[in-house]
């Protein structure tokens, strides 16, 4: 199978004003990014609201949740919001879902929702995906005026890093973002993709693989040390793929090699590095 064309997403969550948020979305679009991706935390903009505003300010930029923790919502609430944002974005939504990052447990109390064991949360995520697909399909075929633009449903992205999540994502997702420790080496990344390839079997080539860059370049803000739980300088020294360094051409060559060898074609990056990665986006997007 021929490699997928490159796509790039910018992960952003905050802005001082509505104007600044929409300017960020337009900037990402103008620079050639495919998607504006919004995380779901209690300390950042509510993702569906933020993404609706971004979609209203742009023409082609896709918008995506990155990712909604399934324990935070009922499945029917996600399906309802999915239908609304797919419609209001003109069919530019990517629905990102997960079983809940480690820090999510401290936030779920504010949602008045239980945060179960890993097995319970994976089951909840599985149920959510199935219900969202069923509800969106029913809306498309029924008499409701609220119908999805993308058929049979918006692309579903699942964040996965372990075997059980790989099994679920390989069976149900259109896009899998590799949820790995930032310190994961190039060899470790290749091993994880190989594991996923075996689990996905014949579906592997149908899945778009995504990888999130924690930083771009060698001059990185100090807070990344706390955000990632590891010294970025050490990741640069060891050549961890979570930090992309080099000239634009060297960075493009690294991403192209990973795409050709591992199948990773969808690259996400923190919005603070939007401009730093832009020359690479210009070289690779759509190729």
UniProtKB/TrEMBL annotation:
<keyword id="KW-0560">Oxidoreductase</keyword>
<dbReference type="InterPro" id="IPR036661">
    <property type="entry name" value="Luciferase-like_sf"/>
</dbReference>
<keyword id="KW-0288">FMN</keyword>
<dbReference type="InterPro" id="IPR050172">
    <property type="entry name" value="SsuD_RutA_monooxygenase"/>
</dbReference>
<protein>
    <submittedName>
        <fullName>LLM class flavin-dependent oxidoreductase</fullName>
    </submittedName>
</protein>
<dbReference type="InterPro" id="IPR011251">
    <property type="entry name" value="Luciferase-like_dom"/>
</dbReference>
<dbReference type="Pfam" id="PF00296">
    <property type="entry name" value="Bac_luciferase"/>
</dbReference>
<dbReference type="InterPro" id="IPR019923">
    <property type="entry name" value="Lucif-like_OxRdtase_MSMEG_2516"/>
</dbReference>
<keyword id="KW-0285">Flavoprotein</keyword>
<feature type="domain" description="Luciferase-like">
    <location>
        <begin position="17"/>
        <end position="209"/>
    </location>
</feature>
<keyword id="KW-0503">Monooxygenase</keyword>
